[in-house]
Amino acid sequence: MTAPLLSNSVAIEAADLLFAWPGKSPVIDIAHFSVARGERIFLRGPSGSGKSTLLGLLGGVLNPARGRVSLFGQDITALSAGERDRFRGEHLGFIFQMFNLIPYLGVLENVLLPAQFAPARTARIPNGDLVAEGSRLLAALGLRSPDYLRRPVTQLSIGEQQRVAAARALLGRPGIIVADEPTSSLDYDSREDFLRLLMSECTVQESTLLFVSHDTSLGPLFDRNLSLREINRA
Amino acid sequence: MKMLKLALRSLRNRRTTALLTISTIAISVALLLGVEKVRSAARDGFANTVSGVDLIVGARSGQLNLLLYSVFRVGDPTTNVSWESYRKIANHPDVAWTIPISLGDSHRGFRVMGTNGDYFKYYRFAGDRAMRFTAGRPFEDLYEAVLGADVAKQLGYPVGSKIIIAHGIGNVSFAEHGDKPFIVVGVLERTGTPIDRTVHVNLEAITAIHIDWQSGMQALPGARIGADQARALNLTPQSITAFMVGMESKVMTFTMQRAVNEYRQEPLLAIIPGMALSQLWSLVGIADTALMIIAALVVLSGLLGMLTAILTSLNERRREMAILRSVGAKPRHVFALLIAEAGMLASTGVAAGVALCYGLVFLVRPLLEHRLGIFLDLGGLTHYDFAILGAIIGAALLMGALPAWRAYQNTLSDGLTIRV
């Protein structure tokens, strides 16, 4: 399944997508939305505009009432729930707004977590050396000191936690990185700093970046800047 | 496997709650195992009150009545067995030995039992334990007595003490055999059976102390017979209360029992002690079943404590589940994570409980043995114990399914986007 997907030039494609929570009016109604492979796209929208629902649909955790979502040419809406879980584990990396880390695991264990559920991501790591790759990613995101590897994640600052989360999302070179307001709890300077490191690592790994935020000031830093309102008819 | 590891890490992160939950389970498991151990020890001890005796023969009444007065010294016989019948059965070729028993008198609340030397030779309890003397020897002379361990201890009688036997079995008696005192010549080791509360004397001595008595009253002073005068008389009793029989061959026991029960000359009853004991235990044993039920309920409340602890943790862990989902965990992984937690809490609790139980048994064993004559087994767990422990872990896993199912449902509805 993995090989042909990576050759596809369209990373994300949603067509005729409709989703409504049970008994409510639709929150997502998208005629067409696509993201090219390697593209870095900024998707803005205020709270309640259906951002989280859209991410749930792209991640395959939610199933649309109508329409389809294709990632690298694979129609994930046609997959079973279990297959979607596996697909997500192998091809998507997520960064959330906050509380990204499992509190009882160490920094490195948090970064290496995807390898536990997605063997394909381990397979894409040079020599299969998880620890080296995890340390490399942490260093690339500005957590250079090996001291970090041993610290409990609960002792990290929010900014540091977000970098660990980004390293986890990037581990094993997933094709798509989905970032859901990852910078909204950071101050302006660290916000730009974080974004710069994230983007450069996405470039290194050739990962597509879908960045969702209500903070419009970050928009200009991306290849494409899109409002959810423009594509969502609901 | 990976979920087990995660569950372990997660529990270590919440170690205070986890340890408390484990101790609750451990204590309840220790209680349950302990009750079970004491229960089986008590049952064995009870069943072993008398052993080595094939039949007990007394006047025809009920089998429990006969067992109670002949072995437990509780209650009274309806009537006696004539000496003739006794000798006839005792002389039967299939009979190896007999122990005659004569009850009816007491000493300061303790029953006095007339018997013969075979009693110390053949009577067994707790499997194959014979009576042993802590001091002295069996009685030989007419006016000698052997005391059970409790009698000697409670009344403080050393060997050499002089005791006077009271007529009847009341705690305080106004009619005493004061003219024929006995000398304590032996004290028995503790047995944990009614032997401990019995004063043993020669069968002939029972005849001797009653020789000048009629209708529960001693003869007038002029007609009395002194202790030494009595020695010269024929002291063979007219009747005895009951007697115990040892067969030459166990196979003949049922035949003999039938023969005694159909004995024409006198209405007699022969019982097999083991069968009568288990019938009696089925009555007495209700109390220990109740105890077992209580212990089981304590285990249940321990497991409910675990359930509460896991359920309470669920809400604050929704974020954690969403993160696991985002990296590719399936809902069944989340389910497995919580089941694994329940399983680990329960099995650690059970293991600690077993250790605790053995520790306690080790500590209280000498005390129980000494005070109550209950012999606790320090040996390994029985199949029954293992079945109980397995059932506890099984129940815990079943209970763990509840939070696991809740988390599974949460996971499906939360997806990746719960905001705590």
Explain the overall architecture.
The complex is a heterodimer of chains A (234) and B (420). Chain A is built from ten helices and nine strands. Chain A is an alpha/beta fold and 234 residues long. In chain A, strands 6-7-8-3-9 form a five-stranded parallel sheet, sandwiched between helices. The longest helix of chain A is centred in the C-terminal third of the chain and has 18 residues, at 188-205. Chain A is globular, with a radius of gyration of 17 Å. The model of chain A is unreliable at 1-5 (pLDDT under 50). With 420 residues, chain B is of the alpha+beta class. Chain B has helices at residues 2-13, 15-47, 63-70, 83-90, 118-122, 149-155, 203-210, 227-231, 253-261, 273-284, 286-316, 318-326, 331-371, 383-414, and strands at 55-59, 81-82, 95-107, 110-115, 124-125, 129-130, 133-136, 144-147, 162-163, 166-167, 182-188, 198-202, 213-214, 217-218, 239-240, 242-247, 268-271. In chain B, strands 1, 3, 4, 7, 8, 9, 10, 11, 12, 16 and 17 form an eleven-stranded mixed sheet that branches. In chain B, strands 2-15 form a two-stranded antiparallel sheet. Chain B is elongated and about 110 Å long. The model of chain B has no long low-confidence stretch (mean pLDDT 87). The chains are: A alpha/beta (234), B alpha+beta (420). The A-B interface holds A 52-53, 55-56, 59, 61-62, 81-82, 85-86, 88-90, 92, 94, 96-97, 99-105, 113-114, 116-118, 168, 180 and B 2, 6, 9-10, 12-14, 319-320, 322-331, 333, 415-417, 419-420.
Structural class of chain B: alpha+beta
Mean pLDDT of chain A: 86
List SSEs of chain A in N-to-C order: HEEEHEEHEHHHHHEHEEH
Q: Quickly count the domains of chain B.
A: 2
Largest sheet of chain A: 5 strands, parallel
Portion of residues in beta strands of chain B equals 15-25%
User: How many β-strand stretches of chain B?
Assistant: 17
Average pLDDT value of chain B?
87
Cα Rg of chain B = 32 Å
For CATH, the homologous superfamily of chain A is named as: P-loop containing nucleotide triphosphate hydrolases
End-to-end span of chain B in angstroms? 29 Å
Q: Number of helix segments of chain A?
A: 10
By CATH, the topology of chain A is Rossmann fold
Tally of domains of chain A: 1
Main sheet specs of chain B: 11 strands, mixed
How many alpha or pi helices of chain B? Answer: 14
Give the strand tally of chain A: 9
